Amino acid sequence: MVTNICSDVDGEPLNLEETYNIPENFLFPIDGLFPIDRNISNPPTKDRSSISIRFRKYQTSQWDDRFKEILLFQQKYGHLLVPHSYPPNPKLSQWVKRQRNQYKRKQKGHHSTLTDEREKLLLEAEFILDSHRAVWQTRFATLKAFYLANGHCRIPSQFEEGSLHVWMKHQRRHHSLLMKGEKSPMTNERIAALNSIGFDWNPRNLLRPNKT
């Protein structure tokens, strides 16, 4: 249990004292934690099936081992969003980054170690290959975990070293651009997901306590 002062979209203190709970482990499985994008296929990659990639035996074995580990991760937590920093298995988090990097290279038509067979295995497991989508889902998962623990989304500016607070500011900016008809990464599905946890699109409207 921690007491802190919330900040508005520009980082100014709202003078709104809040007591909030921090779940011990944001990786615990939560039903409905990822309500969007799960049925959206990853963008198609350029066909490079004609290019044969030869792997050494130990390279194939290492990839297979990491793939088995990520399936165990999914079985335990209900998703495949391995954190960038994952002390229980640092090699797994590095492997996840590598798969997304190789996917990006493959999309651009560059040489990639992500073969069609490997890509198919990852997609069938519902692994998010697109790094931008993965980051959004991870941030949303953290915010929803906070909401389920505290009943609101008023994240203190210091929470997670400010990274989640900054992400929330970006969502508000993207939403504003969308409402103006301008180009924005915000989608109706993301808006619905954020609305489902009471996300405040204009934190300046938060009521300040009356001074006595």
UniProtKB/TrEMBL annotation:
GO MF annotation: an example: helicase activity
InterPro entries: Helicase_assoc
Record-annotated Helicase-associated domain positions: 60-124, 133-199
Keywords, comma-separated and alphabetical: ATP-binding, Helicase, Hydrolase, Nucleotide-binding
Pfam families to which the protein is assigned, alphabetical: HA (PF03457)
This protein's record includes keyword Hydrolase: yes
Full protein name: Helicase domain protein
Organism annotation: Nitzschia inconspicua
